[in-house]
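Batch job 17 of 40 flagged for manual review because the log was empty.
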Amino acid sequence: LNALDNMDARLFMDGQCVANEKALIDAGTLGSKGNVQIVVPHLSESYASSADPPEQSIPVCTLKNFPYSISHTIQWGRDLFDGLFARRPKQANQYADVLS
């Protein structure tokens, strides 16, 4: 049973189980996605044989809770800047327009 926190470790364990002809149950999350896969050597697809398509955007839960790359930090900064200097002033102007 596997519940590892990164792709490199998952791929390593998958390779070891296939090489040693041991069954593997892999369970885990990556961003907002959950995954459970049973690997039986020579009977089923191994973990390394399939891959999800790349994310078009960074999941919000990753940005707020588990940023692990520089691109996450950059996106967090952009979101903060947009919130402080674009969305809130726009909301204030809309509110002022409603009052007048």
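Reviewer: the log was empty due to a logging misconfiguration, but the result itself is present. The chain has three helices and two strands. Unflagging and moving on to job 18.
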